[in-house]
Amino acid sequence: MSANREKAGQAHQEKEQPRRRQARGERRVAQLLDAAASVFTTTGYTAASTNAIAREAGVSPGTLYQFFPNKEAIAIELGTRLMHEMRETYGEALAPVDPATPVEEAVGSAVDRFIAFNCEHPVFFALMHGPDIPGRIAEEHDALHATLLSRIEDLLSSLLPEAPPADLTRTAHMCLGMYKAGLELILAHEGAERDAYVRELKNALIRYLDPLVGDRLGHLDSA
Q1: Looking at the predicted structure, is the pLDDT value of residue 131 above 80?
Q2: What is the pTM of this model?
Q3: Among the residues of the chain, which ranges form H helices?
């Protein structure tokens, strides 16, 4: 019986070892990605280096190269993970709304979710809008942009049920353009000034949409 137990214990250890190695590898990758996010945000993608990322992560360049061959591979992995999370965010933020929802509430809820994501992950803006991002990230971002526009159109269709498709597309482009311009200002400030820019962005979007929506939605009482 003891021999059987010993064999079973050895088999269990042999199964657990790859799992532990995999878990250690995943933690190391997460550590390197966090360091890369900090470096890309601070210096931009173009000026960043694998040595700087390794230094930020507290590891040797050799350790970094065990997981990523170059900074482009790091940026692609980081960008892919962030875009997956962003898709989940706008899936929740841009769901069609009840026709009785005030336009202020519909806009405010969507903006708050997007701003929270970008403030939590400032590297997303740095990577997606940098002058020299890797081609694969640019392609994925273009696909994300197209999907985002489609989801904005879906949201607008619940606010403007009688609007022609061409009008919805144009309005979606305008809303996204205004949001991007506001986001850059928001990320450039902190604290109370950042909050003030968030309010300005919401006001700009609401004032743009309000004449289009008219009386089809409710309105929040003015403060």
Answers
A1: no
A2: 0.74
A3: 2-43, 50-57, 61-65, 71-93, 103-120, 122-128, 135-159, 165-187, 191-213
